[in-house]
Design a protein that fits this description.
Largest sheet: none
Low-confidence stretches: 1-15
Strand content: under 5%
Number of helices: 23
Distance between the termini: 13 Å
CATH class: Mainly Alpha
Order of helices and strands: HHHHHHHHHHHHHHHHHHHHHHH
Number of domains: 1
Radius of gyration: 23 Å
CATH superfamily: Hydantoin permease
Helix content: 55-70%
Oligomer: single chain
């Protein structure tokens, strides 16, 4: 039922129930009190190019070195082959850029916009799992890397107890991260430019210091060919793809932009921010894999680098790892705090951010006590693609089918008969498409932790990303296309 027909049938439905509007501060020096409420036109501000640094800061990550090195060190690819796959996967950064254009159009968070896909009730289940609980787990997995690195440095500085050091670094890092999320959008917009530049300087110094010791003429002793080569190429593509496909929260960062901001500029700034300098660091990791030993991946590439750095540079490197983690997780908590609101929990954004931070800190402490860094990264990659591939694909398909036409107030109409009530509050087309896409992704996934039966049958070719996206997009276009055309025609 369209919004027009619903209104005609019942005059009382003319104005959807919206979250209460109040004066909201959007300054970097005060906590952001706005949650999922629609951003009014007179509160819109900023430029599309500001998004470049918002997405650059999280990408300057030492884990990109580890993933890059695994292509040559573990998967057996030549340097040029690893670089080729990396550059091919970088085009997927267009997807979070495309998702970001829905933010200014709807004026609210992505967790609310997706009600158009899954329905008012169905979206609660999707966001409760992916946008909140899984966010808490991923918070922990990113904080673990910073905790191990910080604790390692403190131990080298004669800190008496490594376990206490792990917990201490985890708690302090988490507390600062939660503060970033509490101050919110304005702080992220202003601070991340300086963070991105500072991290670039630190990592450039580290890479410049390590460069002379790298074996630039590296070649595999037994070059791959045939099916084993294609298997390694597809697995590497899946690993590199996990990063851009995970940023389906990009609308949260763009929702304050003026409504008339050109979509092409939003896509470009977001996509380029995702690509640079993350791809440069990953590329250096590919080359570095031909120099370091296999034991480096057991503890993490960052430990090998730390041992080679001079005393004056090592603390700056560790600080860079921690600051990068804060930048990445600050955005995660910011989005997750609104996700908790969008599923109907009667809580404001700031208490929600604190709650999610406490949850992530608890997970972090459990992980640092019971697992190694590489185990944590493997766990993250195992879950990430199964969830992020179909949800990103369906989100992109919905924007394309609607031609990015979202009416913010309708997204908050939670009453039966509303535009996005669908069938009993569930968007069957969206839910079926995401579940089918997740199953397809799982069947073709091939990692050291899990190999899907179809992937195994094809000789461990990892086709999880292309197949999962194709299944999700095609199904959603077929199932949801007719109803979306009716909805957009009503406006």
């Amino acid at each position: 039922m369209s919004a027009t027909s619903a209104s005609s049938a019942n005059p009382q439905r003319d104005t959807p129930s919206l979250p209460p509007q109040r004066e909201v501060l959007t300054t970097a020096t005060a906590p952001e009190t706005r949650g999922i409420e629609v951003v009014e036109d007179d509160a819109r501000h900023g430029r599309a190019r500001d998004l470049f640094f918002v997405w650059s800061a999280p990408g300057i990550s030492v884990l990109n070195l580890t993933v890059g090195a695994s292509t040559t060190l573990v998967l057996g690819l030549e340097i040029w082959q690893g670089l080729l796959v990396l550059f091919a996967s970088s085009f997927l950064a267009i997807l979070p850029g495309y998702v970001a254009i829905s933010g200014p159009a709807a004026g609210t968070s992505g967790s609310v916009i997706q009600r158009a896909i899954y329905g008012i009730r169905g979206n609660k289940f999707v966001i409760a799992f992916y946008g909140w609980f899984i966010s808490g787990v991923f918070l922990a997995l990113n904080w673990v890397a910073a905790s191990f690195m910080g604790a390692e440095l403190l131990t080298r500085w004669s800190f008496p107890d490594q376990t206490v050091a792990l917990v201490l670094v985890a708690v302090v890092t988490a507390a600062v991260t939660v503060l970033v999320a509490i101050y919110g959008h304005a702080l992220i917009l202003r601070a991340y430019m300086g963070i991105a530049i500072g991290l670039s300087v630190i990592f450039a110094a580290v890479l410049g210091f390590i460069a002379p010791s790298i074996n630039w003429g590296f070649a595999q002793a037994a070059p791959l060919g045939g099916l084993p080569l294609w298997s390694s190429l597809t697995i590497a593509f899946a690993l590199f793809s996990s990063s851009p496909l995970s940023f389906s929260n990009s609308a949260d960062m763009s929702r304050y932009l003026p409504r008339d901001t050109k979509p092409s500029r939003i896509v470009g700034a977001t996509a380029l921010g995702n690509v640079f300098p993350g791809v440069i660091i990953s590329a250096f990791g590919v080359v570095l894999g031909g120099t370091v030993g296999a034991e480096s991946l057991e503890r993490g590439i960052e430990y090998s680098l730390l041992e080679q750095l001079p005393l004056w540079l090592a603390p700056a490197f560790v600080l860079g790892v921690i600051v990068n983690t804060i930048a990445l997780n600050g955005m995660t908590i910011y989005s997750a705090s609104m996700a908790l609101q969008s599923i109907g929990v009667p809580i404001r954004r700031i208490p929600s951010a604190v709650l999610i931070g406490v949850l992530g800190t608890a997970f972090t402490i459990v992980l640092v006590m019971s697992s190694s860094l590489i185990d944590s990264v493997n766990l993250m990659l195992q879950f990430l693609l199964v969830i992020s591939v179909p949800t990103m694909a369906v989100y992109v398909a919905d924007i394309a089918l609607r031609r990015n036409r979202y009416h913010g107030p309708e997204l908050f109409d939670e009453r039966p008969g509303g535009t996005f009530w669908y069938t009993g509050g569930f968007g069957i087309a969206g839910l079926v498409s995401v579940i089918a896409g997740a199953v397809a992704t799982t069947l073709f996934l091939s990692t050291t932790v899990w190999t899907g039966p179809l992937g195994a049958a094809l000789g461990h070719l990892d086709l999880s990303v292309p197949v999962g996206m194709l299944v999700s997009v095609v199904l959603y276009a077929l199932l949801a296309g007719p109803s979306i055309r009716k909805q957009t025609a009503a406006h």
